[in-house]
Here is the input.
Amino acid sequence: MLLNMLTLKSLRLYGLAALCVAPFASALELPLPPPGEDVVGEVQVIQARYEDTFADLGKAHDLGYLEMVAANPGVDAWLPGTGTEIILPTRYILPPGPREGVVINLAEYRLYYYPKDKPVVYTYPLGIGREGWESPISNTTITVKTPNPGWTPPQSILREHAEAGDPLPAYVPPGPDNPLGPYKLTLGLPGYLIHGSNKKFGIGMRVSHGCFRMLNHNVLELAKLVPVGTKVRIIDEPYKFGFSQGKLYLEAHTPLSDDGETSIVDKHAAVVNVLLKRDDIQDAHLLDWERVREIVAAEVGIPIPITEPTALAATAQ
Here is the structure.
């Protein structure tokens, strides 16, 4: 079926892809949609150069590694090939819940920030906690902002590295070898940070000890934007529904799972549970359920319409 394998042709069929002739600025700053709408941004398409990798393209366009892989099935992440058309998945359904402060959606490895004084949303890719060191689901705040941080590894990490034959020093001073990068934002959750990184690879993956890693230019920008005391809401929502111009969209990501296995039955049940929580989606029988199944199976992380623009509007009158 159409979405069993995402193609550029299918995206253009839905009018979702546009050719990108120039790179974005240092961040994705997107205007908030009008009330009742949930979709922001546009899918972009670029042509790869010989030297491009998904890690490099992700850094240039504020995208994580796994979301680049998901949006470009069948393309070699390390050598896409000169002239290969690469999909940049820069269209998003905003996360459910209040549009305020910082919202981190673990399932999409992405942070959203809603400033109080401007009708926009900023969004950045994240590295999150790996298996055994999962990032928490919680409500907290930013308590401290620290430029050029030093790092004192906790005993658990010191022990892990020692057992692996890679001992760490008791303290790492600020600088290029510091794993916290050029800035850290301390959260109200003891031991958890939003910070930069001294590694090029790993943003948009499960790689950390529970903290949230950002590209260095992204964390520096976020640090300028967010004041101390900003609310932080951490959620895990692999399936997001949202309206845009009368159509209902679904965006599906691979659910986080410690064993890497989530059955298709469990995925479908999770989608239905998300639908049941939405008071504004009353007529589920009007959804294109075949397309829903394809989107859930494909897990490309791009909003795809699952209704015609007149379907739900007609029943709401």
Remarks:
- The chain has three domains: 8-23+37-91, 101-235, 239-316.
- The two ends are 33 Å apart (CA to CA).
